[in-house]
Design a protein that fits this description.
It is a single chain. With 171 residues, the chain is mainly β. It contains no helices and 16 strands. A hairpin with a 4-residue loop joins strand 4 and strand 5. The radius of gyration is 27 Å and the shape is rod-shaped.
Amino acid sequence: RVTALSRTGSLVGQLIIDGNTAFPNYSGSMGGVASDPTDGTLFILDSGNRQVFMLKRRAPSITEVNPASGPKGGGTIVTISAVNLPSDVVVFFGGVAATNVSVSSSGNSITATTPAHAVGIVDVTVTGSTIPAGQPLLLPGAFTYVNIPPEAKLTASPVQGLPPLEVLFDT
């Protein structure tokens, strides 16, 4: 197990090298490890073959919103498929922040509740600590707000009688 820490001691990256790890031409003799504290890239020195392996962390990304539509009043619980997200993400639907945002422990999905928004198609954006400032993750047109008319439950009184029957409805 190789663990890379920043100068402040926070975890930057971790790698487990065992019999299942496939590095081309790896001698099995690790001579050292270094990390770039700015992006978490790990550099592993193979002292047997005198070569360096560079392992870059996958950049965060988002790929899909499910379901892709909901009422304009908000309240739809959605799952956003993702890769390598930090735990502190903030999610926006058409520029309005979502609530109840939760990132899976793997960083590969987000659960959030949509905010209220006008009817129409909106972009979904995500920001967070490992996402470059001013470059949020973007899914253009990924969610559609729809107008769902209210349900009318009608009751009639009286329900039977001789014609002509006058029926009154309560809404």
